[in-house]
């Protein structure tokens, strides 16, 4: 199964950041990037269903 890490820009649009095949790794990556960049990140599955939403 694919998990896609996305970030939100200043115009509230979501952009693809990375694709992972492991849910735990995708969430860990999103948390680290949210903390480093100060942007919201989310993890969605291949069908676009929300898995996790991470705030900085």
- Span from first to last CA? 26 Å
**Unreliable spans:** none
- Helices, by number, come to 1
Order of helices and strands: EEHEE
Biggest β-sheet: strands ordered side by side in the sheet: 2-1-3-4
Counted beta strands? 4
Q: Write down the Rg.
A: 10 Å
Largest sheet, in brief, is: 4 strands, antiparallel
What would the average pLDDT be, to the nearest integer? 97
Write the layout of secondary structure elements.
Elements: E1 3-8, E2 14-20, H1 23-37, E3 41-45, E4 50-54
Antiparallel strand pairs: 1-2, 1-3, 3-4
Structure explained in plain terms:
The structure is a single chain. By secondary structure, this protein is an alpha+beta fold. It has one domain. Helices cover 27% and strands 41% of the residues. The protein contains one helix and four strands; from the N terminus they run ββαββ. It has one helix spanning 23-37, and strands at 3-8, 14-20, 41-45, 50-54. The protein has a four-stranded antiparallel beta sheet with strand order 2-1-3-4, with helices on one face. The protein starts with a strand and ends with a strand.
């Amino acid at each position: 199964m694919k998990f896609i890490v996305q970030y939100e820009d200043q115009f509230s649009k979501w952009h693809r950041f990375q694709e992972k095949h492991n849910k735990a790794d995708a969430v860990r990556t999103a948390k680290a990037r949210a903390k480093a960049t100060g942007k919201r990140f989310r993890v969605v599955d291949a069908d676009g269903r929300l898995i996790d939403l991470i705030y900085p």
